[in-house]
């Protein structure tokens, strides 16, 4: 494995870094305080081609692969985890259509959500089907050329703003998990409404909503893949999404480390800058070491995916480790800042709150331990 970025990847990194500094960081505090979806920033990400990374040019995308996607997501996460989450989770929809959609679906949806300004979402979680994805109770009953969807989803990132979402529903409850199917539901479909929008601890600029389906009628042409293939589609999508969350997590950690280093160079105590204190220097060493490990585990998983190899365990390792790293690093960075770190006027307080979600969504750390142990014991 080559640990060097290509010239093209270095160029993407430079563009993403400047974008994060100029277009993301200035609004990070505001969208967190007010829980505002950064619509203007999203549109600028569209203009930059970030929303189309990983989608082939022939389908209106920007080309590139998961390496490029990680680069962009992590650079944005350094400045605003909420904006990075919006981009990362938006691309799950594209991944599902790109991997499992038919030719007509790819030609219709991918140009719109890649560089056409439309937003995508992934609707799997329900009140009683979180870590246990097989417990989905939403139904999609056949009615001629349509499905009639009834049920509810919760904790859906981007649900209130999405133009299209992949909804997982049972087309045959008697088959259990083998009856689960994936169906695209467009915004504005009769019988589909947005319920409660959650008031969250972190990534507050990335809204999380309840979705309600009350005799929601959609054409069977919106079925992605085949009936009964939904659980497989969901698991493959989650493997990919976990790489994105790992990128968010180590990006948050890198941003926190940058703040800690800057503060230690500027802050004077006992007549010396904090960099003269050996104990705090050891904090920096621990933080940097964990970040580098998390970063390259994430890139390894992305390389395996890119090359068409099995990456389920590597994605789980990357996400589990990067999430732990984000919590570890933001905690120490806040500690280095002392009382100032605890205050909302400093970004560490926000970054500490943002880091926690990386241990929870797209599979909790406990679920990732199960995946890792299961794959190891095979």
TrEMBL record:
Which residue range or ranges hold the Acyl-CoA dehydrogenase/oxidase C-terminal domain?
Answer: 228-375
Q: Please provide the record's keywords in A-Z order.
A: FAD, Flavoprotein, Oxidoreductase
Swiss-Prot/TrEMBL cofactor(s): FAD
Which chain positions lie within coiled-coil regions?
none
| Recorded GO MF terms | acryloyl-CoA reductase (NADH) activity; acyl-CoA dehydrogenase activity; flavin adenine dinucleotide binding
Out of the domains of life, which is the source?
A: Bacteria
Q: Which Pfam families match?
A: Acyl-CoA_dh_1 (PF00441), Acyl-CoA_dh_M (PF02770), Acyl-CoA_dh_N (PF02771)
Domain Acyl-CoA oxidase/dehydrogenase middle span(s) in chain numbering = 121-216
Q: Where is the Acyl-CoA dehydrogenase/oxidase N-terminal domain?
A: 7-116
UniProt similarity note: Belongs to the acyl-CoA dehydrogenase family.
Q: What is this protein called?
A: Acyl-CoA dehydrogenase
- Species of provenance: Peptostreptococcus porci
Recall the taxonomic lineage recorded for the source organism: Bacteria, Bacillati, Bacillota, Clostridia, Peptostreptococcales
């Amino acid at each position: 494995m080559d640990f060097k970025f290509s010239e093209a990847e270095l160029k993407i990194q430079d563009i993403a870094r400047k974008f994060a500094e100029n277009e993301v960081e200035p609004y990070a505090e505001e969208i967190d305080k007010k829980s505002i979806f950064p619509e203007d920033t999203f549109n600028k990400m569209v203009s930059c081609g970030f929303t189309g990374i990983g989608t082939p040019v022939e389908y209106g995308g920007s080309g590139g692969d998961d390496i490029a996607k990680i680069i962009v997501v992590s650079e944005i996460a350094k400045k605003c985890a909420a904006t990075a989450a919006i981009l990362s989770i938006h691309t799950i929809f594209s991944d599902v259509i790109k991997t499992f959609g038919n030719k007509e679906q790819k030609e219709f949806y991918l140009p719109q959500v890649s560089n056409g300004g439309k937003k995508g979402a992934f609707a799997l979680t329900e009140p009683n089907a979180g870590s246990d994805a097989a417990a989905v109770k939403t139904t999609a009953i056949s009615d001629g050329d349509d499905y009639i969807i009834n049920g509810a989803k919760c904790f859906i990132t981007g649900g209130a703003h999405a133009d299209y979402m992949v909804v997982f529903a049972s087309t045959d409850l008697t088959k259990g998990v083998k009856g689960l199917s994936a169906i695209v539901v467009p915004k504005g479909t009769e019988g589909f409404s947005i319920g409660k929008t959650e008031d969250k601890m972190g990534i507050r600029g990335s809204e999380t909503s309840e979705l309600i389906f009350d005799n929601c009628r959609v054409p069977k042409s919106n079925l992605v893949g085949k009936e009964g293939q939904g659980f497989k589609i969901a698991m493959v999508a989650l493997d990919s999404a976990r790489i994105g969350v790992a990128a968010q997590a180590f990006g948050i950690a890198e941003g926190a480390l940058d703040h800690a280093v800057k503060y230690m160079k500027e802050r004077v105590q006992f007549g010396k800058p904090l960099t003269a204190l050996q104990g705090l220097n050891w904090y920096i060493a621990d933080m940097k070491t964990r970040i580098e490990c998390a970063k390259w585990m994430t890139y390894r998983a992305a390389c395996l995916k890119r090359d068409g190899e099995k990456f389920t365990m590597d994605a789980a390792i990357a996400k589990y480790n990067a999430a732990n790293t984000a919590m570890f690093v933001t905690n120490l960075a806040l500690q280095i800042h002392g009382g100032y770190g605890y205050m909302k006027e400093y970004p560490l307080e926000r970054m500490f709150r943002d880091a926690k979600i990386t241990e929870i969504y797209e599979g909790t750390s406990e679920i990732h331990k199960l995946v890792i142990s299961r794959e190891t014991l095979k």
